[in-house]
Amino acid sequence: MNCRILPPFLKPGNPLDTTSRYMTKVTGEPFEEATLARIMDRYDALLLIFGDPVVGASKVVAAFKRNTDKPIVVAFSGGGKVEEEERNKIYDLKVPVYPSVTRAMKYFQRCALDDL
Questions:
Q1: Which residues pair with 74 in a beta bridge?
Q2: Which fold has domain 10-114?
Q3: What single-letter DSSP state applies at residue 3?
Q4: Which residues of the chain carry a pLDDT beneath 50?
Q5: Residue 7: its pLDDT value, please?
Q6: Can you give the pTM of this predicted structure?
Q7: What digits encode the pLDDT tens for the residues 12-32?
Q8: Which of 26, 30, 91, 99 has the fewest CB atoms nearer than 10 Å to its CB?
Q9: Would you kindly state where each structural domain of the chain is located, as residue ranges?
Q10: How far apart are CA 71 and CA 66, in angstroms?
Q11: pLDDT given at position 70
Q12: How far, rounded to the nearest angstrom, does the alpha carbon of residue 59 sit from its chain's CA centroid?
């Protein structure tokens, strides 16, 4: 991966580690949108994990969705009212949301088996 396109606080690799600092910045700035498109070229699917209530999480999901037609799944846990509001916005984007990484990965597994 060309690390020059990544902000310095990201760790290149698989899986790509995106911090909440990065997620907050992904809400529409052109540099981040271009970065997302390059990142998604290297992956078959995307699992976004939100472990805390993240205001604007749906904007992050929307930014990824604008830049790829690859499968996107969200694991969102631990967030009360903020999580509920963001979860509903993510559902409106037609992206599945699960309460744990395990359940989200089971969804990917089912999809892979269905494609066989």
A1: 48, 97
A2: Rossmann fold (3.40.50)
A3: G
A4: 1-2, 14, 17, 20-21, 23-24, 27-31
A5: 53
A6: 0.70
A7: 554 554 554 454 455 444 445
A8: 30
A9: 10-114
A10: 12
A11: 86
A12: 10
